[in-house]
Amino acid sequence: MTNSPSLAARLPFPHTVRWLMPVVLVLFFLAILIWLPWQARQMERGERQEQLIADTLWVEQTIRFQMGRHEDSTRAIGNDILAGTPPARIHERMLRLLKTGTELKRLMWLDPEARILAATEAAPPRVAALSAASRDAADRARRSRNPVYGQPGAESLQTVGTPGAYMMDYHLPLYRGDTYVGSVVATYQLSALLDEMVPWWFAQDNQISLLDRDDRILARRAAAGPGHGVYTHKRALDLPGVTVTLMTDSVKSEPKLLPNLLVGSVIALSLALLWSLLALWGHISRRLAAEDALRQQMAFRTAMENSLVTGLRARDLEGRITHVNPAFCQMVGYTEEELVGRSPPMPYWAPDVMPEYQHRLANVLAGTVTPQFETIFQRPDGTRLPVLIFEAPLVDNEGRHTGWMGSILDITDRKRIEELNREHQEKLQASARLATMGEIASMLAHELNQPLAAISSYTTGALNLLARADGDRQPVDGGKLKPALEQVGAQARRAGQIVRSVFDFVKKRKAERRDVALAAMLDSISALIELQARQHRVTLKTVLPADLPAVHADPMMVEQVLLNLTRNGIEAMANVPLARRTLTVEACYDAPAHQVSVCIVDNGHGIPQDVAERLFSPFFSTKAQGMGMGLNICRTAIEFHGGTLTHRDNPGGGTIFTFTLPAAGA
Question: How many alpha carbons lie under 13 Å from residue 317 in its C-beta half-sphere?
């Protein structure tokens, strides 16, 4: 007998979780203790860098502001020179300007040949000794007529500055009109500029340097020693004509990690406690807010459902009702308590439609449902209610199919409107038939006149034979009377057939679809068609296949369509040669669509494009006495049967009208 493995051996995962979770928590806590000081160090480093940038910007603005003041003062001296102020007065103003700052070492007034007219030096030379960079700046200022700074250079001006210090000349060109009359030159010592403009507190923490465009050091101030290269920033002084950059390098080193580690540990513990409290408070707040939002949403949804006129009904997969809204209860006449939880059969099912309900219920239980259908509900008082139902699947938040949701519309008003439209259509059809008979009344009178005249003639002949027989006192010869009486009967039957055709066509009766042969409908109106054909001397040709199936239609409507279309075709050929006056009625069966197509082909004048666009519009007619409703009624009648009425040009000249009807059994 083998020993079965222990429970711990069989279930290793829960045992592993018991010792793994504390380890994970400890590692997580240590990670926080390390991450927080590191993050504090990074924040401190960022704050130091941001502070250095802000201080550098302030120093740069201070230097630029002071140099701007000197530029304005130099420009004022230039204006005095252009105004004709004596050189002695100009010399005094230069001395006063020189005393405003130690960074400004020399001022000179030069004529166009660079001869000194006035200067702050005790014994200035006759011609100004300018460096190559300064002469280049003077030339650029003269050409541009704007003040320009020269490239700094290490000049030995023992009289005005520190030997070996970098000097920078500022050239202000003077123009009287378009004539160059000289310039004013101000000389700056860059090291004195840093000593004068950089505050002591900033110099104690940073090494400040002025660099040229090649990053060559022009001047430097390092009161607290050289910088460490950790926190640095560069800022251009934006001087016209020269590139000078102010660079600051902090003497501070990287933040220490150990003090931050201890502080971070305390902060981490405090933050952990605070986070726990905030998390608990946030959880409670979110739960209360969620409950309040749920109550508001439920109240809103309830109010919205109660205000709907559309009935809502939810069912589970077994067909039980799980939810209804007040509109549905009002439709069926039952309360929510009577319906919710009810299983089929439902109390609002009409008895005569019960098989249909059972069939749909079987589809629901099988997992399929008809998306849209019409049916009948019955209220407790026996009132019947036609409804339109839309069904859609109900899916929960996990994607599972839990039932069906139905939207129910009361279509009583729609059914009433459809009935009114149907009655109106019947009246319109009857009016159209009467109008058609009015148009062929003269032909009808002419056609009836022939059999009536024949009856009158044969009757007169028979009476004459009887009169002669009475006069001669001889018996009547039946052999002579029989042909006359037979002709009278034949002509009477002919007249009766014409009258019956007219009566059947114009009488009002209820629309009723049934299976009827197309040939039978043509025969019933053949007398009326032939009347019009004979008047216009048109030959009627009928092409019907022997195996043509019957159509499922209302004979009255289809006969009217045939009569209207054949009359239009006959009238369209009134002005064409007699040899072309042939009207063809042909039909064929479309097996895939299970439809019968009927074509009325004429060889008339055709339909112009502008007329074809409005051919089926109500009250549009090309006939002087036409109502403009014939083709519109024809299209309405065909569409009532689910078919279409179209037209196209006849390749041999004329027009082909085609309409479709559903075949029997469709």
Answer: 6
Give 73-93 as a DSSP string: HHHHHHHHHHTT--HHHHHHH
What are residue 491's phi and psi, to 5 degrees?
Answer: -70, -35
572-599 burial, b for 16+ CB within 10 Å, e for fewer? bbeebeeeebbbbbbbeeeeeeebbbbb
Higher pLDDT, 286 or 76: 76
Neighbours of 630 (CB within 10 A): 23
Q: What is the DSSP letter of 46?
A: H
Cβ atoms within 10 Å, residue 380: 11
* CA pair distance 527, 40, nearest whole angstrom: 108
Cis peptide bond upstream of 345, omega within 30: yes
Helices (H), 406-513: 412-439, 441-472, 478-506
pLDDT in tens, 141-169: 999 999 999 989 876 444 455 666 888 99
**Residue from 340, 349, 420 nearest 387 by CA:** 349
d(CA 372, CA 392): 9
* Structure-token pair, residue 80: 């005095």
Category of 547 on φ-ψ map: left (φ > 0), alpha (ψ -120 to 50) or beta? alpha
User: Can you list the pairs that 48-55 forms with residues at least 24 positions away whose Cβ atoms lie under 8 Å?
Assistant: 48/231, 48/250, 48/252, 48/255, 49/231, 49/233, 52/206, 52/231, 52/232, 52/233, 52/248, 52/250, 53/233, 55/202, 55/206, 55/248
* Token couple for 317: 């997969």
In terms of Cβ atoms closer than 10 Å to its own Cβ (0-12, 13-18, 19+), residue 664 is middle
pLDDT in tens, 41-71: 777 778 888 888 888 888 888 888 888 998 9
Contact in structure between 241 and 148 (CB atoms under 8 Å): yes
Q: How many Cβ atoms sit within 10 Å of the Cβ of residue 560?
A: 22
Minimal CA–CA distance to 101: which of 188, 1, 167?
A: 188
